[in-house]
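Run log, item B.
One chain of 338 residues. Sequence copied directly from the ordering sheet:
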Amino acid sequence: MSLRFACLAAIVVFPVAAHAQIPRTPDGKPDFQGVWTNASLTRLERVPEFKELVLTQTQADDWEKEAAKIAADDSAPTDPSEGAPDRGKDPEGYNYFWIDPGTRVGKVKDEYRSSWITDPANGKVPYSPAGRAAMMKPLATFNSYDNPEERIPIERCLIGFASTGGPPMLNALYNNHHQIIQTPEAIAINVEMIHDTRIIRMQGQHNPSVVRQYLGTTVGHWDGDTLVTETQGFKQMEALRLDFGLFVYVSPDSKVTERFTLLGKDEIHYAFAVEDPVAYTQPWKGELTFRRSPDRLYEYACHEGNYSVPNILGGAREMERTGRKAVVTAPRARIDRQ
């Protein structure tokens, strides 16, 4: 066989082989159906000790060892003689039994990543002055207990925290599973946390008059074997999201574009871009990996009916009646490395 013919054969055969390596639906589209997880130690924004996007094997190993030590410490039995924490100190309501953040540093394209954000290069959300001010506005009432409207939706179990439902769909301290159900007309993503469900309307069009939703409204189309989605129309209440103890602001006027690409049968490459020229100085982009999980989703239980909200507000009224001031701490996560 001549070299020229061999090269031509490679051009013809390799795409066919790649085409056969991923599962497909009866209509020939990549089959994303199943349960997937994006649990990982890596998070949206880069932690201060890392300067580069890609980590070395040693850096990844050290991070995982540190996380394992934290997990072991938090899994230890509580000392019964320890007593109550000092007033105003974090009571640490969760020990490690209740969380499932993952034990490995995230890998994308076979590289260990220090953040999901790839652009800007510093791995941070590029807030504009207006965007940062908009983020700080709800934070100003975070420690206020005047009315239920000031309590954020994630606290009231109306929506999952940490943008697990997204978009962009990020990882959290627990409930990092997503179940995908696919038809030619629509694709549903059922999120483990609070069972938020995204409906991606294929070949649909955005309707500006549609009522804003917590997860926005999403339309999708195929770009070859890549599922491309565009989401807009977010509720204002869902703008503030948690990212491993830190807040991330996804403005209600953002447009989020996602690209889902099946790599083999057990891995999805997930890329996203968030745009709003008012809230950010530039579009910000990122990517992460979803891995197929053999597990099934448990039924999610929270304090449905806002049972905790009357207790929170009732406690605040009692403190007002007795002339005491509430001492509060910002939410944090023990797995956070900052």
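Observations after the first pass:
- Residues 34-75+86-292 form one domain.
- Residues 1-20, 330-338 have pLDDT under 50 and may be disordered.
Flagged for discussion on Thursday.
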